[in-house]
Write a structure and sequence with these properties.
Elements lengths: L1 H8 L9 H33 L2 H27 L14 H29 L8 H28 L2 H30 L4 H28 L5 H12 L6 E9 L5 E10 L4 H19 L1 E10 L4 H17 L4 E9 L4 E9 L7 H15 L3 E9 L1
Parallel strand pairs: 2-3, 5-6
Antiparallel strand pairs: 1-2, 4-5
Amino acid sequence: MVQVLVRLFVKDYQKTEDPEVRARYGLLSGGVGIFLNLCLFVGKFLAGTLSSSIAITADAFNNLSDAGSSVVTLVGFKMAGMPADQEHPFGHGRIEYLSGLAVSMAILLVGIELLKSSFEKILHPQDVVFSLLSMGILVASILVKLWMSWFNRTLGNQIQSTAMKATSMDSLTDAVATTAVAVGTLIGHFTNVLVDGWIGLLVAGFILYSGWNTAKESLSPLLGETPDPEFVEEIRDTVLAHQEIVGIHDMIIHDYGPGRRMISLHAEVPADLDVLSMHDVIDQIELELRHSYHCEATIHMDPIALDDELTNQLRQRVIGLVKEIDSAISIHDFRIVQGPIHTNLIFDATVPYKFRLSDQETAERIRQAVHGMDAQYFAVVRVEKS
């Protein structure tokens, strides 16, 4: 069913990195969400009125807010697809993340309102009137919401969209909330125990928890999260597939929205190769990355001396020294500058985040180890995070 809708309404649906195609996915998701949520609002509001259930009525207005969330998703994808301009040279792709964050805020708002109404229901309980019509509407609502959750999750996985995944979670929390309301109605009818408010309280807690997690997931790419390890490995393999490149480091991946990534890295090349030839190789790799991964790529060329025996010996000795300090430390960009009375060993040291030593302590330990190796050697080291 989902793929049928995608093929009908999304032109070039396989080009998921294309901002225009992503906008069409957003239009499909938003349009379906608006229509179904409005239908559910009308049905649940009728069921809540007939049964005098605050939980059902609150759930109806939850669906009305969901229709608004679908509008946000639709508009967000449309705006995210706008091309780059003078004020936003990297495009507007991050608006998609903002729309996901807005949906998360809507989930949290619904949870807070349900929490308040549930407390009122506990303090001032009212009989819940059971009717087959209202129960049928609730069951239909649960099935529709489960389908909507699956629908948006499928679309979100196809185009790797946090906004659609947030919308999927919103629908799933609605299904859980409505299930709880239906259970409470049945309990109240068959046992005369008024649990409507208590069940609303539990549902509110679940909605707040889900909204908080969804907000964190939407906010993470806006703050700048760690790139996907598989994507990093693909970039590394692509660059190192060229025999002229002997190593890479300082790779940075900037995310300006889905399909709008920028990659920068340092590529180590033999210092004795022709600089013009190596420049052509670097240009070729940048073009390959842009074509294969739909991203902008900038590569800095680092010449290293591979045939200098002293440099190679000292590099290996320093590697051994830093491993004695901690096996998690690695070095790169190693070179030596010899003077009349001392020799500088210049390199970068890479440590993981939350390393047991501060950057200053790590650098000082390395300097002491290098100087202890020979009094004429001085380490000029810069510590960075991996």
